[in-house]
Amino acid sequence: MAQPTWNMDLTILPDDVLSLYGEPFYELVRKLAGPGEAKLLEAEGIRSAYSLINTEDIFDILNYPCKTLNDVKTSICLLLDDNRYIIKAGCKINLQYLIQLFTLKNQEHLKTMGTRMKSKKSNDNGISNTFSTQSPAQVLPLSSLSSQQTTTALTLTG
Questions:
Q1: Residue among 4, 2, 24 at smallest CA distance from 14
Q2: Host domain of residue 94
Q3: I need a surface site. Which of 22, 48, 63, 83 has the fewest CB within 10 A?
Q4: Rounded CA gap, 19 and 1, in Å?
């Protein structure tokens, strides 16, 4: 099946989405993807956007017989006549969309951080270039500055 192409609207995400952890993260997942999808992530211990976008196959855990997952399976899967479960297409799509949103938000964040780092580096280089372009005559040691000021002060009063 071909990967769907969506119009990704990052404005639906809160500004601090990448720092949400635990219950605030699950609440956002419930809101954007659904309660069953949030249960799945909670059962797997996926507590943040970073955990989610770095999880290889979020549905793999459903392949194992585990009583703890029965509630999750009931809400996001269909039980087939031969007692196997199949994941509902809507649940897959909801989580794929959420992962893409988080991935794009993370990329946007990394670009912003890269721009800030370049800007800081550029500013740091500008400061060091200012110091390196001064001739030795322009740069006075601190001790000579304080003695010059003292001398000037004495000259003015004396």
A1: 24
A2: 14-106
A3: 83
A4: 33
